[in-house]
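User: Can you help me understand a structure? I only have the sequence.
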Amino acid sequence: MGNLLVSHLKKELSLLQPSDIREFDAYASKIPGIIKFTMGEPDFNTPEHIKQAAIKSIEQNQTHYAPSNGTLELRKAAAKFLATKYQQNYDPTSEVIITNGATEAIYTALTSILNPGDKVIIPTPIFPLYIAITTLNQAEPVLVDTSHTGFKLTPKRLQAELVKNGSAVKAVVLNYPCNPTGVTYSQAELDQLAAVLKGKPIFAVCDEIYSELNYDQPHASMVKALREQTILLNGVSKSHAMTGWRIGVLCAPREITAELAKVHQFTITTTATMVQAAAEEAFKNGLNDSLPMKAEYQKRRDYLYDKLTALGFECVKPQGAFYLFAKIPTGLIQDDQKFIYDLAAKAHVAVISGSSFGPGGAGYLRISYAASLENIQEAMRRLDKYVTEQRN
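Assistant: Let's start by predicting it. Here is the structure, written out as tokens:
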């Protein structure tokens, strides 16, 4: 007999399912000899100078609570990094919060904004966390399929959604470069979106965690056009190969940050002190740590794109991040969920189904090229054989 108290849990939990991305990754991990392109995690190790900073912090007994918003030294370092790299200027004393990864930054931002019945415009395909957190806050995700507009939200479509949904719209979520498509926006495109939102009581929640992994253009940002309405998310996970360290950065105008800090404080109190020392070192002395990683990712992107298109997969060439979003060719299993299990079982290659990322993702695959070129080459040989066998 099940626990009777289950029915007394938060009702929105019943609307959510555990991550099918992690579920499939766990399944695939049990297949001997599998090559995985499933998780969004750099395959590089954290740079040595950053690890040494954490060790030194522990040796100096920096193991007590840090200030809730983060050590002032880290906030200063993060603010200087953002200003130097992207011309995003925030006061480290009052406009920067250090979070437990970008994940907590997303949770803090949306929880601070949303009341029951509010709506959040979320262009899809997109990382599903924004949808789940919106739902948990008793708000409604307005999922906008961008698959017919180059996987970008257009000003025309944004304006139409605002008219359709009226004053209930509280926020627009933008992730660029995007997980799962690798698509990003130019500054002109963001400026046009900003013009639609400017002066309206609507937040732009901008997740720029992949900002250091732009291949074909400088990183653009909504902050430059709409600072007063933007809540900015960033961190060191992708830029410095520090996913397991769990350090994010949340920035907003002073008055908004003061309110965000309340949710942050009552959710996690603070992030680990010695980890903050490592992140401080990353921002201070790792200004260009991402460059060798980015160069390698770009080589992998180009190789993978060429091979997949030769096999008949329709792909938007990624402009950033380390994902390629590929449409399953005709003649193969068109249900992307069934396809990934069949591919894993028969070819021992694991990728993620596009439908995991919302409307517009069905029939696509997300392939993470945060894997060695050798593994990518072997996986493409296996995929070539699989495609040939399935078509015959």
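Now, to help you interpret it: The radius of gyration is 21 Å. The domain at 4-45+290-391 is CATH 3.90.1150.10 (Aspartate Aminotransferase, domain 1). Let me know which part you'd like to focus on.
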